[in-house]
Design goal:
about 210 residues, alpha/beta, Udp-n-acetylmuramoylalanyl-d-glutamate--2,6- Diaminopimelate Ligase, Chain: A, domain 1, two-stranded antiparallel ribbon, 8 helices, 7 strands, about 35% helix, DUF34/NIF3_sf, DUF34/NIF3
């Protein structure tokens, strides 16, 4: 199963954190709060972000809500959400990733959607809205590597600071090995895949290892 974190919050607490009127439903509060932080319009074209599964049953006012966070909403994660009596799941990967013509228990996506709906679990997808938004995932990742100026590779035409990818103009040169080590520390992983450009040869790669 994917790593999942749980948090408990009352409807009023979520409303206060979101800066919204607490007369709204928990689903609406979470959706509006995330949309303000990670605007759906900055997402990649065709990316299914926002509230992808809503429910008919709402959290009673004053009751505690269980909100789960995950990278991928797999069947194992759904089972864990059901066991934890979760009310809402915030996932990075869109679920479903595209509009469904048929909702069937014969395929994985259909089973996930049906089980969430049956157990009154709302689902909100962040996906590229989270990575492209100002102060989002890519900004955080770039800023974690080294001090410097971060800017989008492909800037969004309407939202300042938003866009696809990031360029880090570091204030000082660093060995490639140091950047890789820092990235492993930030992501807490043991291995990374390094993509090299078509113009990179052994000589330029060796130079990059010394200082980039």
């Amino acid at each position: 199963p994917q790593p999942v974190h749980l948090c408990l919050a009352s409807l009023g607490t979520v409303a206060e954190m979101a800066g919204l009127d607490n007369s709204n439903s928990l689903q609406r509060l979470i959706s509006n709060s995330l949309a303000r932080r990670f605007p759906p319009r900055v997402a990649n074209s065709g990316d299914n972000v926002g509230m992808t599964i809503s429910t008919l049953r709402e959290v009673e006012r004053g009751a505690a809500a269980v909100i789960m966070l995950c990278v991928d909403l797999t069947e194992q994660v759904v089972a864990e959400a059901i066991n934890a009596h979760a009310n809402h799941v915030i996932t990075y990967s869109p679920t479903p990733s595209a509009p469904l013509r048929v909702l069937s228990a014969d395929d994985i996506t259909g089973r996930i959607c049906l089980r969430c709906a049956t157990n009154a679990i709302a689902v909100h997808s962040l996906s590229s809205a989270c990575t492209n938004a100002p102060g989002g995932l890519t900004d955080w990742l770039a800023a974690s590597l080294a001090p410097g100026t971060v800017s989008p590779i492909s800037a969004h035409p309407e939202v300042e600071g938003a866009g696809e990818g990031r360029v880090l103009d570091a204030t000082q040169a660093l060995p490639l090995s140091a950047l890789i080590y820092q990235l492993k520390e930030v992501l807490q992983v043991h291995h990374l895949r390094l993509a090299l450009g078509v113009s990179v040869d052994e000589q330029s790669f060796a130079k990059a290892q010394e200082c980039c």
